[in-house]
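Pipeline run #58 for the internal structure catalog. This entry was flagged by the ingest filter as a single-chain record with no existing model, so it goes straight to prediction. Upstream metadata was stripped on purpose; only the residue string is passed forward. Reviewer on rotation: M.T. Logging verbosity set to normal.
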Amino acid sequence: MARILYGKEFAARIKASAQHGALMLRECGVHPCLAVIIVGNDPASEVYVRNKEKACAELGIRSHHIPLPAETTREELLACIDELNADEEVHGILVQLPLPKPLSESSEEVLSRIDPRKDVDGFHPVSVGHLFLGTPGLRPCTPAGCIRMLEYAGIRMEGAHAVIIGRSNIVGKPMAMLLLERHATVTLCHSRTENLAAITREADILVAAVGQPHFVTADMVKPGATVIDVGINRIAPKKLVGDVDFESVSEVAGAITPVPGGVGLLTVAMLMENVVQAAKAQTEAGGE
């Protein structure tokens, strides 16, 4: 039976670091602040926003919740972001995705409007550039949380073969860059990859981020591999499952993250760390 990598254990360590950083800043007269814009009333998005607000309150980070109606225009949303960009007391800005239609068609423009120094989601082109170059910057929360978990769990990345299923800008691509940074050999798979199971069976670290319930089965996993399940799929009103068939894969893998209770907790914890990092960088830049 695989070692189960519970997110709560690793998230607590990330949060403790963020809490200490927030305390240090408050002692210098700076209160880290995260502004979250949510457009419309998507139930899942509202749950995510509440989780972020709760984490902020726990760690001594100020949160500014900005609900906008679903009819909000592109111009109104961009103006709201501009206002937050100019507010020196706001250190992190997050636009909760997905945006409702027709705004969803402007998602790239909306994310690019955020001041890169306040881009705590790590999605701005400038942040992506820093990630690609390996220079300091704000990293996307989910992949960064997965890397931190592997480090804390003592799972070797250097020289390991890491296979990622899914090439999204939010998880797959940044995960590949972060693993490369830690000297893993990375294969990035997607919906058009041929002989997928043969490739995944070579993985020492297998990351599933496809958005399909139970997509990864035991016959796709190398015995002893570490399996990170980034997927979260609602298959019944009160039942969430990942992209990995946990029951069968946990019999083969060496370590595995559960869903729920795995990667999702790391994402929120890393967001808190990014807010503190952004506040510290802006404070230092302002004092020069």
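catalog note: The CA atoms of residues 180 and 186 lie 7 Å apart.
catalog note: The radius of gyration is 19 Å.
status: ready for reviewer M.T.
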